[in-house]
Amino acid sequence: MGTIKFTNARVLQTMPPFSVQEGVDVVVTDDIIVAVGNNAGASFPDAKEFDASGKTIIPGMVCSHHHYYSGLSRGMLVQAGPQEDFIQVLKEWWWRLDRALDEEALYYSSLICSLDAIMAGTTTCIDHHASPSFISGSLETIARGMREVGVRGATCYEVTDRNGGMDEMRAGVEENVAFAKSVDSRRKSGEKPLVEAMVGGHALFTIGDEGLALMKDACDSTGRGMHLHVAEDKYDVAYSHHRYHKDIIDRLDGFGLLSDNTLLVHGLWLNDREIELINGRGSYLAHNPRSNMNNHVGYCKGLGDVDNLVLGTDGCGGNMFEEIKLAFFKHKDQGGPWWPGDFATVLSRGNAILDRYFGEHFGRVEPGYKADLTVLDYRNPTPLVEDNIAGHIVWGMSSNAVDSVMVEGKLVMEHRAFDFDIQEIYAKAAEVAARVWKKVDTIAP
To answer: Which residues pair with 56 in a beta bridge?
Structure first.
């Protein structure tokens, strides 16, 4: 890929220790940042130059929990029954949508989610997928869309028995294993994979003990961690107590499924002891404020007690500027004590998951770190200094300021333009979405 130098930029470190550097160059060779500093680009006279005068460079943002299968759901016009509780929302809306997805629909969902993320300055999406009518090959289809757009990612299939019992459960596990093996094969051939694998699972009220045992075997055989919804709604907790006489986290821990590469999601109704157990295992928990509000499932009051809290969208797009704002304002609405810096730390912590899965360093604009970068055209009307970076992120910055995006050392979007026709993709996606919506209307809850 060669060398590119961003010249005369302002550089912000958006995770502790926060810092601001003015008028510096950022030099990238292949996929690694090799120099940052005043006139650092002068030592690389043959490098391609990106004039970043008046621009602000930040580390690329991570959406730590996404649902790419939602990519064609925006404004979905279908007939649906009552949605008075969380289970009705799932049955009447999301579970009908995912059953309507085929290979073409999933491919365009992936393209759209990836494009939307890049345009919002998000460089990595950690996906959690379901398409019961198209399981085998589904993860490679998602990865293909990610790679073609240029977003970094990870994906997995959410193991469940909600439609086809154990046959569906086994098929989901097999798809997770097959995709992990394909990623390993790419790495063995000398490639640095842009998309990694995890072992997915839906909420525990749709996974029996035999399914958890299969997931544990998949984690062990692939060396990957689990990505699973927990305690999104009180129903999940009550079901675990009624059916298994255990707290959710105890049930997972009994199968050895909690580790430092485990990503749990939501956790609104976990108790204090469960959070202590998650912390003790070094597992991550993704907070998804926008989705929680949309589904009216409550608020995660234990945020401040989770050591490895990260930020996701749960399929509500890939715009992390929007998500961090909603996270902050909802927290304040609930009387919480956190300030913008706390949420900036949570958002940036998604990079630690990437460190674990890709085996390299992410999340800072410093030599030795991966060149996943977002270039902003942000005009600050007040001083922007070390102590108020997070305040500017929450109160001022938005996806409207995103000018260019680099992933793996490649400018995948430069001055708001891609090197391929995105209008054609959006037009085709709309056609596919209309077809999927018609199919959803034929599917009973």
So the answer is: 10, 376
pLDDT of residue 87: 87
295 and 198 housed in the same domain: yes
In order along the chain (445 residues), what is the average pLDDT of each group of 10 residues? 95 97 98 97 96 98 97 89 87 87 97 98 97 96 98 97 89 98 97 98 95 98 98 95 97 97 97 98 98 93 96 97 98 97 98 97 98 98 97 97 98 98 97 95 90
Residue-level pLDDT at 81:
87
> What's the CATH code of the domain at 320?
3.20.20.140
What residues does 375 pair with on adjacent strands?
A: 57, 404
Q: So what's the pLDDT on residue 317?
A: 95
CA dist., res. 112 & res. 434, Å (int): 15
The reported pTM is: 0.97
**SS3 letters across 189-233:** CCCCCCEEECEEECCHHHCCHHHHHHHHHHHHHHCCCEEEEECCC
Q: Environment class of residue 45 by beta-carbon count within 10 Å: exposed (0-12), middle (13-18) or buried (19+)?
A: exposed
Backbone angles phi, psi at 390, to 5 degrees: -65, -35
Residue 289 identity: P
Domain that holds residue 384: 3-59+363-413
Q: How many domains does the chain have?
A: 2
Which amino acid belongs to residue 329? F
Residue 285 to residue 219: CA distance in whole angstroms = 18
Q: How far apart are the C-alpha atoms of 332 and 329, rounded to whole Å?
A: 5
The verdict on 128 and 239 lying in the same domain is yes
